[in-house]
Specification:
Growth Hormone, Chain: A, 0% strand
Amino acid sequence: MSQATDVKTEGAYRRVWANREARGLLVAQATSELGDQMARVALALLILAETDNLVLSALTLAVSFIPGIFGAAILGSLADRFPRRQVMLASDLSRFVLVGLLAVGAALGSSVWALFSLLLVTEFVSMPFQAARASLYPDVLPDPADFMTAQGTSRSVHLATQVIGSVFGALLVGLINPQFALAVDAATFLASYLVLRAMVRPRPSADSGGTSARRLAADLRRGAGELFGDRVRRSITFLAWGSSVFMVAPEAVALAYQPGLSSFMGGILLASVPAGSVVGFVLLRRVPVRDQVRLLLPLAALACLPLFATAINPPPLVAAALWFVSGMLTAYVITVIALVTMFTARERRGRVLGVAAAGFNAATVTAFALAGWLAGFPQLGPARTVSLAGAAGLVMIALLRASWPTEEIEAAV
């Protein structure tokens, strides 16, 4: 790495954090996602304690991805048809109300399925927010180097909030109760609303305004057609979707890794993969974008290898270390997200990113449910289920490698 490249990278970080709007987007994201993860872990532990059902507990962690299967694809175009700041503000206020109701429902002893339903609606409302935020970054930071830096920082914030939220969510359950964690989550959405309103300036909609059921359907078709019709974006999107097979398996089984596992140790295991990803990004960000692209498949394959060692059912701290290393190697996902965004025209980002997010959410939910189900078999258990996910990941990467458009991707970069 040359000194000039290091200086350019560090300069990009200073420019991103000096940008008031970019800083506002990152602070709002950190606030709301931290509360979200704390609440998700608290609710998963509550359901595990009440039902002793690992599948239901795993689905609680995966529930944030379920609405995205349809919500992201269908509602993503709202980020194109309406001002993106307005979409985010409306979403934050809606989630503040919904999570407040969720906290009240948990305090009153509502049924598991009632809590699931409220959580699903809350996560559904999150879909337009995520599409709007991702689509807004290139407008706030038009310089490609600054955008790539902001995109990576946003992903790191997301992973860091998973780490902190997992640990503190588990601690809150042990020290106080799950209802308190849900109340904290509601407050974070109000804080996010205030930050965005103060720090992000209004902009007109990127595409012709207004929507309808017919227009939503047409936007979905156009977004899918553009994504799958472009070999470059299609290939790197498939890599992101397939990576969920081995990325989420450790999280799906973490809280029930071994009998008698403490909630705090469960939180450590749950946080190990995202914590590794944060460290991985810090290292990967110093690599030129062209080299990051060349490393996509090798890093994906290497990320599967530490999961194999979990087959011997190591102690929780050893498993956490192995999963941390695997998480470090999955930092390439940040590059994939940034490339899909950069290769899409401004007025169509919401719908294209919505379709890409929908596929990722579908793959993630499937992986969560499948891992939770397989871990329940005595012949497998949580540890061997994770190693099986690593093997499946290698098969997926081998299939992608057979038709990987190396020259086209490098030319696009």
